[in-house]
Specification:
This protein has 7 helices and 14 strands. By secondary structure, it is of the alpha+beta class.
């Protein structure tokens, strides 16, 4: 039987307290803020046709950071979410909070492109993995992780899996392109990504592209797919109307849809990252790429 939202939250909060008491300060719940109910508009369970993307920011500090990130994801409760700048240890902690506190169970696949002690901690000879991660409420198959031939100032790549969204199989990509002043590098990365996306009639491409909609390097993506925001297009006039997804009021984050139509979308600013979470609900039927 599915617990009502309030009862499940109370049970999850008690479980989190027990984790602290039983496991002590080394437990993942160290620094856990006082658990609180989700907003009244939170769905309370995974939304089967909802997908999202979020650059969770690294390095970022602050007490209870991963608990806050888990709360943000639980508030949206997408079926699938692509994370960028994700450390494996952080994602495992986020998944733990999602399940123990909010009753949301996600599977995970990683597309780590580097191991970095400064970013992700760990022992100097065993640093944590850093890159992309995809959380999905349904099983994932056919995982592919690709590092771009030229990452720019830092290694970059994409992760791809096949999973269910709205009850139908779809190829999901999660990427993070080169930093904002490296347009030529991003152009090469988009060519690699677009060539793979083009192989699929139904695809969802999530990620931080580090480029505004009318940036020329995004041309191959726009030729294959459309953004979840129906009014957001690469022409200068339309690009100005695209909702910003960063604290510096630029749109860098995208949910590109190929062969799938969007129904609604939302940008959610967060105190836990310099990027906003972007999520969209999809139509189950075929859509125009």
């Amino acid at each position: 039987m599915v617990l009502r939202r309030g009862a499940r939250w109370a049970a999850g909060a008690m479980a989190a307290v027990c984790m602290v008491l039983l496991l002590g300060p080394s437990a993942p719940s160290r620094g856990l803020p006082l658990a609180r109910p989700l907003p009244s508009d939170a769905p309370g369970e995974v939304v089967p046709d909802r997908v999202g993307t979020w650059n969770i920011c690294n390095p970022c500090g602050g007490s209870g950071l991963n608990f806050g990130r888990a709360t943000e994801i639980a508030t949206a409760a997408p079926q699938v979410i692509g994370l960028q700048e994700a450390c494996v240890r952080d994602v495992e902690e986020i998944r733990g909070y999602l399940e123990e506190v909010y009753g949301l169970v996600y599977r995970v696949e990683y597309g780590s492109v580097l191991r970095n002690w400064n970013r992700c901690g760990g022992l100097p000879w065993r640093p944590g993995g850093f890159g992309q991660a995809i959380l999905s409420a349904a099983p994932m198959t056919d995982r592919v992780s690709v590092e771009y031939p030229d990452g720019g100032s830092e290694d970059r790549g994409y992760l791809a899996v096949t999973t269910l969204v709205g009850g139908r199989p779809v190829r999901v990509f999660d990427t993070h392109l080169a930093e904002r002043r490296q347009g030529e590098v991003r152009a090469g990365q988009v060519e690699v990504l677009a060539a793979e996306v083009a192989r699929h009639d139904r695809a969802i491409v999530l990620g931080d592209f580090n480029a505004v909609p009318d940036a020329p390097e995004l041309g191959p993506m726009w030729a294959l797919a459309r953004d979840t925001d129906p009014g957001c297009r690469p022409s200068p006039g339309d690009a100005d109307s695209c909702a910003a997804t960063t604290d510096w009021n630029s749109k860098f984050d995208y949910v590109f849809l190929r062969g799938i139509a969007p129904r609604t979308h939302r940008v959610r600013p967060s105190p836990y990252s310099d990027h906003h979470m972007l999520h969209t609900d999809l139509n189950a039927g075929p859509g125009r790429g």
